Amino acid sequence: MELRAVFAGFGKSKAFAAIGRALMPADRVLLRVSGGRLGVGTALGLRTLLLTTIGRSSGEPRQVPLLYVEREGGYVVIASNWGGEKHPAWSANLIARPDATASVGGRTVAVRGRLLDGAERTEMWDAVASYWPAYDRYAVRAAHRDIRVFLLEPR
């Protein structure tokens, strides 16, 4: 059995979200140092990239590790914030300044983030949620907001 499948069930729990939040700083460092080759998520068999956005208020680079699925030559990422009540800051940064970089698999790619809606959002949500079913649980926990879905397109 694939390691990702083992963690998929646990990934739906609030405990996993708490652990995930606590591990994000280490994940960010590992992904930065390895150029997107190795992180906490990749060690668990998860496709993980390191997204670098520019802070909408600070103007400073901000990095966040994210699960992704490749689609249409780009990367689909979901701004679930583990099902939290607010959108994650990186998603607001990406809306304000869509140009960003993604470090994945040892290379850094200049990308432009595009917020998806309608049928395209649904299709991409389904693609990522089939890879990591916990996203459907996060959507239940975040029922008061629509979780943002982005396509990071190479530029």
Automatic annotation (TrEMBL):
GO MF annotations, alphabetized: coenzyme F420 binding; oxidoreductase activity
Record's catalysed reaction(s): oxidized coenzyme F420-(gamma-L-Glu)(n) + a quinol + H(+) = reduced coenzyme F420-(gamma-L-Glu)(n) + a quinone
Pfam families to which the protein is assigned, alphabetical: F420H2_quin_red (PF04075)
InterPro entries assigned: F420H2_quin_Rdtase, Split_barrel_FMN-bd
Family in the record: Belongs to the F420H(2)-dependent quinone reductase family.
UniProt name for this protein: Deazaflavin-dependent oxidoreductase, nitroreductase family
Gene Ontology cellular component list: plasma membrane
Lineage: Bacteria, Bacillati, Actinomycetota, Actinomycetes, Pseudonocardiales
